[in-house]
Protein: CHAT domain-containing protein
Amino acid sequence: VGDKHGEGGAYGNLGNAYHSLGDFKKAIEYHNLHLKIAKEVGDKHGEGRAYGNLGIAYDSLGDFKKAKEYHNLDLKIAKEVGDKHGEGNAYGNLGNAYHSLSDSKKAIEYHNLNLKIAKEVGDKHGEGRAYGNLGNAYHFLGDFKKAIEYHNLHLEIAKEIGDKHGEGDKSLEAIAYCSLGRVSELQGRLPKAVEHYQASISLFNSLRVLLKSKDEWKVNFRNQHQMAYTGLWRVLVEQGNVDEALFVAEKGRAQALTDLMESSFRGGTSHHKREDEDCAVLKNVPSNTVFQAVDEANVNLWVVSEGKQVQLRQSKLKGFVSENSGSSQSFESFMLGVYTQLGVRSNVRCENRSLDALREGRSKVDEKTKEANPQPHFQQDGCLSSLYDIVMKPVADLIQGDELLIIPDGSLWIAPYAALKDGNSKYLCESFTIRVVPSLASLRLIADCPDDYHKSSDALLVGDPWVSEVTNSDGEKVLEQLPCAKEEVEMIGEILNITPITGRKATKREVLKRLSSVSLVHFAAHGCPETGEIALTPDLDRISTVPTEKEDYILTIRDVLNVQLRAKLVVLSCCHSGRGEIKAEGVVGIARAFMGAGARSVVVSLWAIDDEATLEFMKCFYQHLAEGKSTSKSLNLAMKSLRESDEFHDIKYWAPFMLIGDDLTFDLMAKERENLNRKSNK
Structure:
């Protein structure tokens, strides 16, 4: 209808919605669209709101200086147009920016201005937020008495608002309880801290139920409310409640993925309430299971095995400085140092199998975020040994046998466990077969799945779909053909005696038709690490000369869920398939997508390697798999083969491959034998 004002407002509302769900980059995209239209139509109120929302989004991304710039622009406009409500919000947002920049006194000054205006205009939401922000500022200054005073005022208003407006406003109350929990913890009042953290978690979980089947929303919602779970298990550890702390850490782990897996394996129905599963979740846990939980620089390592006492060991990232002290070396930056040492961030001779060219609006935000968060300089020698000392050495005496199961946390999801070196300079994969799982609950779901749920034979090999006609919004061709991917699946097909589908035959329709009837799936194609999307051949029967709808050729996780994936193993030879966005949920990416869709296990790569190395690795892996060896054993033997070769002995060639989920053997020739028997009987 040509309502530009309404269009701008809608963009702003979409930005706020994405921000509430933790997708700050998407929020920035929409707030910029709102800002553009507001300027075009001369909507000063809208322009101010857009500036304020952009400031909040950049603050959430850690670009505090950029956030301050936008909040000052918002404040300027609010004063110009006499918008007292907007002026108060701008003061509060500026207070948060100064708090993030460690200037707590300036932050308190602005939060008091926000509080004054909120009271004047009767803005209860604003008043509550101001109290909460003042509590945070005094907490930072070490004035815990004053911090508790303000957090209690915040809680009082949050309860009042929640009572009036229902469950949707309970998040303010949950945040207030979490803040009170943290201050009580720092005061040494641990029972009170437990009480507050539990109240916060209970409220967050009641809100989470409202998200129903919206996986992406659940992931981002969980990411925003990690502090309550972390705080609770941290206090329980301090109290000596080792088992209970593990159960809390586990309950907060991979919640959205567990929902997806329950839906896939159990048809959406849970046989037992999760709150009653504390002890049951340890049932049938394999020996040598190491559960990780990270809190700033501290790593907690629970060693779990059925019939044995749970044992906790702890370690610390050296050189870490907490956020409140200024600069910090996070586990994410530490892992970047490990990758740098391995040389895996440099250019390699391989095809670009990512979908980045189709993801418009991503690069600019990413570039700005990188500028705002410069990476630290690393002393690179010994990163692998240091990582071993952090995640394995403390529990080495508790590990028996030759199998290792790891439940990683945060950035430790992208650790190259196979390449970690012990005190004798021996790689971890030389001592153990290694696999990872997202949580104990997901491990149990896999173990409890009926034997006949997953297919026992046949394979689907997809390589080098015909994507030359795929274009972006400007009509430019953006995806290149992948001849090495074609060679890869043809080589695997020869080993398994199965004809792969490649080129024009690899349509989305054909892949979906076959996906639910095979035991093994191998994709060598363009993929998106974050969303799990894979580019296939556009529908050959389409009317237009170029594919115009992504639904026509992009395989999404929703597509896979709808056809009920029954594969025991999915091998993802697309992009850096083990990578993705690191959130409280874990690594949110393509591997998680297939686990959620029903795959029993997934093999991924943490970084790109040379095409020739990939071919050699896959050849060795599938030869051992076809011989009846387990997935983990086949991976280890393939790594060993490359490690002992002249050309690919370097760690960067053999160490990126990782098994997620179950460890299985395959009878890939069963269907062929069945056909031969039929022919002989005839």
